[in-house]
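So, can you check this one?
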Amino acid sequence: MKHLKICAMIFALLQTTNIVIAQTSSTKTTVKTITQTETTITDADTTVKVTEKYVRPAVPVVAPSIMKYLVNAYPEYTVLVKAINAIEMNATFEANGPVTVFAPRNRAFSNIRTSNINKMLKPEMRDSLKGILTYMIVAGNWKTEDLTQKIKEGGGSYSLPTVGGTGNLNFVLNGDVVFIKDNRGNQFALGKPVTTGTGIIYPVDKLLLP
């Protein structure tokens, strides 16, 4: 009889307790668990302690946009971010679907004098600067494995048009490493890609020139 009393009290408690089930998703999620203090149920001769546990629903983690990533990757891309802001080209990275950016880190500008970089950022150089920046962007999400497959299908090379329309970027394989080549014959290996909410970024340590 005593056991029946205990079961009845626990059942009554469960009837008045909201149960929350965490949902899962294919995206990355953050789940936080809260354990409340123990609840005591008492009658004349029996005390039962029940610990209630609540789980908050999973919250999707939204990847940053390309621009937010470049800004937050300080100081790796400070020169590039200044150049993008100088010609108000932020929207190019956010609009019209995903893009793949071959983004020059600061060391890519190491052979250029500071005075020449400052000159490049002036309003009168806007068109020239825009031509350089749009040459390093192609439409779509291009993962390393996708580029590798296209290179093999193309007999050893593959080309993609840039969003600026100033020429193509060319890709070849050296062993298992993908190399990128610009219109002037400059060729170097791609860095490890970073996937963002608006596309893919490949860090590069040399400037790509149309």
